[in-house]
Amino acid sequence: MLAVGVLAGLSVLSLLTYGYLSWDSLGLGPGEAQAAGTGLGEEPGAGAPSSQPHIVFILADDQGFRDVGYHGSEIRTPTLDKLAAEGVKLENYYVQPMCTPSRSQFITGKYQIHTGLQHSIIRPTQPNCLPLDNVTLPQKLKEVGYSTHMVGKWHLGFYRRECMPTQRGFDTFFGSLLGSGDYYTHFKCDSPGICGYDLYENDNAAWDHDNGIYSTQMYTQKVQQILASHNPRKPIFLYIAYQAVHSPLQAPGKYFEHYRSINNINRRRYAAMLACLDEAINNVTLALKKYGYYDNSIIIYSSDNGGQPMAGGSNWPLRGSKGTYWEGGIRAVGFVHSPLLKNKGSVCKELVHITDWFPTLITLAEGQIDEDIQLDGYDIWETISEGRRSPRVDILHNIDPIYTKAKNGSWAAGYGIWNTAIQSAIRVNHWKLLTGNPGYSDWVPPQAFSNVGPNRWHNERVSWSAGKTVWLFNITADPYERVDLSARYPDVVKQLLRRLSQFNKTAVPVRYPPKDPRSNPKLNGGVWGPWFKEDEKKKKTDKGKGANKQKKNKNKKKAN
């Protein structure tokens, strides 16, 4: 236990911070900070001011835990550092290990097991989307008078028109439907020959906006236009889901200037992409101030999952990476910046999960949460703003009944309580339990990025005894998951397995259909978009019924 105590002490050293720049050094004068400019549409001064706050939720894509200045990164992020330092840093904040799961849990306040999206992500060719019977955050905000706008990456399915962002509560949408694509051309190939264009404005392909502009900058320009044309006296919800820093690794040339010394090409490109993203968030913040929103705004920043070391991301000193249930896949960079915070300049170490934003933001917006909505999130505003204890004591990271790659998993290994072949992970207070195959488990230190190509020589690995399918960690004392305690505390293992079993009883069936050939963009004007039409299905059903009637009549005549 001495080793665990030493590790807990080292965890403090891993969070050394860099200095912060002033707004003046970022190009904002004192007058501009307070000035409210006249918009392109309604006059900002029209109408009585709203007590409801403006909500800006910024979601970065694949940003590693270490990849922010205040976590000790060599990549400069002056905007993120300053916003976080003046707000509340979330240092016990969890998301999901991949794109679709994090986005679905943010927008519904529900765990994956309660939406059917507990396996992998939604693929472009799958007839799948966030189930239509789930109420979304923008829908609830619209009920209480918010104007709702989404800019960026959707990745919650689009096979039917009803699945599109504008049908799920957003007044406007500008961005991509898929999980990734070229930052300049906005084309995406899912497999050889299955390629298409993926940039939308509302429900139509945005060919008019295809001017070869880098997506991070293009999305920021769109946000600036929305803020300029909206009345700041009326509440607005802006969901900005940047494509960066997800692969492909692309960035405008000028952002490489400070990172020529990084030999690893993937890390260098990643650094340039993050530098551009940091500048974009600065520009969004300046627009909030310029057009009169800032003083009554709440800015939330979050990554959707951990970084991918092979694509330049770093989660050091955490273990694992994107796509895994080790801390490096699910513990995220996150903070809240707002003039409305009571404890500005503080650090929140209470347990917070991405599902918590749904009830928290609806409550802040003076909305109502229906009693029949079974949420997994908690209202954690007082935890963040006032430093109170979190109402959350556990997190179901996931149960994936399809992912059973742990060949040695068994009911016996799970004490007859749980089949440890199933990939699952749960956190209860200080304890974290993993079963099945949690995924790539190396620790990837900064030295791993020191060479020209990917180098795993520096990676630290643990060779587990053959057949291991259960791990237990005290995350508070051992945030880097170096000391497995499953053999030492079998009673704790059993308690957490029982909790997993209880959660599993509430799970809905997994939605993971096979690909549909009708999804090919060649059949849809070269564009990724809705292909499933209810009318066609109805016609086929009607034709089938008609054919059956004709057969019955023929059979009757023959019988006669």
Automatic annotation (TrEMBL):
Signal peptide range: none
SUPFAM superfamilies documented for this protein: Alkaline phosphatase-like
Molecular function terms, GO-annotated: metal ion binding; sulfuric ester hydrolase activity
Compositionally biased spans, kind Basic and acidic residues: 532-545
Basic residues bias locations: 546-560
Pfam family membership, one: Sulfatase
Tagged with keyword Lyase: no
CDD domains associated with the record: 4-S (cd16029)
Keyword Nucleotidyltransferase: no
Record's keyword terms, sorted: Calcium, Glycoprotein, Hydrolase, Metal-binding
Domain Sulfatase N-terminal intervals: 53-365
Region (Disordered): 509-560
InterPro entries for the chain: Alkaline_phosphatase_core_sf, ARSB, Sulfatase_CS, Sulfatase_N
TM segment ranges: none
Necessary cofactors: Ca(2+)
Family (UniProt): Belongs to the sulfatase family.
Name of the protein this chain belongs to: ARSJ Arylsulfatase
Organism whose genome encodes this protein: Alectura lathami (Australian brush turkey)
